[in-house]
Amino acid sequence: MLIHTIAEVREQVKEWRKQGLSIGLVPTMGALHDGHKSLIEKSVEKCDKTVVSVFVNPIQFCPGEDLDKYPRTLEADEKLCNDAGVDIVFAPSPKEMYGEGHILSNDFLTYVIPPYFYTDKLCGKSRVGHFDGVCTVVNKLFNIVQPDFAFFGEKDRQQLIILKKMVKDLNIPIQIIPCPIVREESGLALSSRNKYLSENDKKEALVLSKILFNIKACYEKGIKDCKLLHETAFSYLNEHHSLEYLEFRDADDLEEKKIADKNTIVFIALKIGDVRLIDNIALENV
Amino acid sequence: MLIHTIAEVREQVKEWRKQGLSIGLVPTMGALHDGHKSLIEKSVEKCDKTVVSVFVNPIQFCPGEDLDKYPRTLEADEKLCNDAGVDIVFAPSPKEMYGEGHILSNDFLTYVIPPYFYTDKLCGKSRVGHFDGVCTVVNKLFNIVQPDFAFFGEKDRQQLIILKKMVKDLNIPIQIIPCPIVREESGLALSSRNKYLSENDKKEALVLSKILFNIKACYEKGIKDCKLLHETAFSYLNEHHSLEYLEFRDADDLEEKKIADKNTIVFIALKIGDVRLIDNIALENV
Questions:
Q1: Which chain A residue lies closest to B173 (C-alpha atoms)?
Q2: 49-78 of B, contacting A, C-beta below 8 A
Q3: What is the ipTM of this complex?
Q4: Which among A285, B26, B106, B216 has the fewest CB atoms less than 10 Å away?
Q5: β pairing state of A264-272 and A275-282
Q6: Which domains does chain A have, with CATH numbers?
Q7: pLDDT tens by residue, B51-101
């Protein structure tokens, strides 16, 4: 069922609550791919009812980012959801989410601001304000849908860690369920932004997963010094790759690691031409 | 029933929800007086179950403010609540609310930040960060108790307006119920901080309500120019009074008024010695 208004979602959810049914929420920006599908399937399996939100959230894009050209494929998204057994596809307009005049600055809108220690690094460094926008919209979606469980992909691992922190800090009565990265056979992590890549760029993009897989292999062979592990990356990089970061950080609080351990995540971001891609890997299963 | 832990409140509230009972929350910092009592009575009347939280929230006090000496009278508060028919008095420790190490800066804690346009004026001007602390703790309490209704006094009118804005912006499924200021027969608005006043200071403190009542009387006689209305205050002030602000603002969005109208609130703050007092009045019933 495709729903565009907050009031209709609330009405339906209220009915489910009365019947004692459990509710799963999968927040997305649409352009759904097999990564999203794995989240949706997990929710459908775990919960009595599943809501997928499809909303390209303007306040998590920074000036100059791809808000306008971000892929919008609602018809295909709805079909994927229906086929997967989703109960509600919630696709509100920006006006529905942020009101009539919708002035989106923090002069006129209440924001949920995650801690600086979590946002001043990795993607937060180049995407200033991004996670403020993410936390604010996810908080709104949580309040609208009031799910028992919310499903987020490990592909956006910094986001996942920040949202778990938000849930803990604000005592939000919702359990966050992390879902593993889905990769093409080539190793490339699925992303809606992969649509921006030419065939040749896609080959170049394999460098992210190659670097991560190799670091994990080195770690498993006994190399724990993050500086040494970091150096193994350079042989993979060429003039098509503009490395933004390659960092070793804690899976819970994003503290930097000098010596890799079982709680270490390796984070990478790089640009192929104009397209910015991210990936990450846990050195052990966390 | 006095409860100190989040888990116990949640358990009890869950039980009530199952039974389809409506829940009212009255968030307080304790030191309860007849003003609080009127909020509590309204909740007990309107809702099946009433929770009163008693928590002196450290993150809404600015450096140099009265966090340590703020009156704490839990035993008397509990008695007042029991007599009024309250179901739960929730009195958590700072550790229970903010965790073990509880580092309370925005480096390590997720904050709910109301819009600057609402917080850069009136009390927000001298109490920088105060409303960030208020919104964050109220958001936490909302998530812990998940009430249908929450009761706030018009005494803290800027706070009330900001919390209504937060509820709207974040789609919080709770209705805010404003409750009128309770005054002594003298006109003095009740406040936990009145305990700081000597007998003589208390007489001096009447200046706040006198100024507001007089402005309202002038308005009713037909004076609408806020500059003229403002000037009527000066004859009441003497060397014991240090006026912080006397302002005319909109009841919904705190925009400044040049010409008073039915949506105008007059806000006043002044110090008697070291004690900072606030009061306000609606020029018509809003």
A1: A143
A2: none
A3: 0.96
A4: A285
A5: antiparallel
A6: 2-179 (3.40.50.620), 192-280 (3.30.1300.10)
A7: 999 999 999 999 999 999 999 999 999 999 999 999 999 999 999 999 876
